[in-house]
Amino acid sequence: MHTQTIKTFPRVTDENLATPSASRRIRTIAFWVATFVVVFELAAGSVWNLMQIEWVRVQLNHLGYPLMFTYISGVWQIGGAAAIIAPTFPRLKEWAYAGAFFTWSGAVASHLLAGDGVQAWLTPLVFAVFAIVSWALRPGDRRLPSASLPRKPVLSPGPFRSGSFCFCLSFRI
Asked: In the chain, what are the helix, strand and coil shares in percent, each to the nearest 5?
């Protein structure tokens, strides 16, 4: 006689769903710590740039950047900080994270090319890493919906609509 084994699944209750796992809590805490560091540095850097404090002027002069760069960078940095901390606008967040990473990786490259030692380029490198960590750990509601390319090209009518049999291949993105 053949016997069947029945696999039972653990019962999921509302209490189990309400209490996040330890790894989820750690991920959430790590995300908010990294995000706080990124947003704080963007906001503080923006204020420093817009006020053109002496340290910023000396650094820009040493690296060969014009002083007007402070105004441009300062406005974009405060916009990036606001976009990252805002609860909506996932596409804008992607651009803000990219801008923050480009700012700090550009600072690392500028200091390396100027021949500065590790004390000059380590700080922007750490901020770039915090930006990557914040971006990677962000929750699902702060991400773009997943977009994937279709597996097969889709046939669509070509530019001639007068009964010709011309079809153009187009890919939906």
From this structure: 65, 5, 30
